[in-house]
Amino acid sequence: MIIMDEKQSKIHATIKSSLISNFSPRLREGLLVIISNFGVDLNNDKQRVCSHKFKISFFRSTSIRECENIPIPLYGFDFVNFEDILSYKVNPNIFIDIIGLHKGVSPTVNVGDQVNKKKDTQNRSSRC
What we know:
Blueprint: E1 2-4, E2 10-14, H1 20-23, E3 33-42, E4 54-66, H2 82-86, E5 110-111, E6 114-115, E7 118-119, E8 125-126
Parallel strand pairs: 2-4
Antiparallel strand pairs: 1-2, 3-4, 5-6, 7-8
InterPro entries: NA-bd_OB-fold, RFA1B/D_OB_1st
Pfam family, one: DUF223
Protein name: Replication protein A 70 kDa DNA-binding subunit B/D first OB fold domain-containing protein
């Protein structure tokens, strides 16, 4: 999951599968909480959900309590320009947010063992 603070800084948070039932009833999108007693590690994952260099891990002893209304937006998108994606100006190992208008996709065509790449309406290839 991704946790965001009042400065819209985001950090990846993980909960071991054996602890999910302890925390899932107390965590939901948009809920403002104070979290304490958790672990902090370097985020060296090959694929990362956000650019923060650290990630947090919940323990059995991690505490979650609801807090007063703090002005934190529900979503913290960091939109990326499609041109930056095509020109490799974004880190390929960090998930990105894009927004656009879907105008249509032509079907891929198998030619032997190769698949033709999908192209947008301006004939630019995308690796989907």
